[in-house]
Design brief:
By secondary structure, this protein is mostly helical. About 40% of the residues lie in helices and about 0% in strands. InterPro entries: B12D. This is Cytochrome c oxidase subunit NDUFA4.
Length: about 80
Amino acid sequence: MVMPGMTIESLKKHKSLIPLFACLGVGMVGAAFYLARLAIKSPEVTWHPKDNQEPWEAYKQKTYKFYSTSSDPPVSPAPKY
């Protein structure tokens, strides 16, 4: 037996479930996109540790923020050893 609201035919009877599924779908896609962005763009993550021993060094001249409103040159938060 299928739960109510899980088929197209039952969604026609329970129209109030359509926005719930839409919001849930948008939230899941947004969360997956953000996790993929963190895995690809984050300086703390390295996919090839032998090729790139210190991946954070690439961010010395890059902006680390997700969204920046300032046009000032980026300042690296990485410590200088």
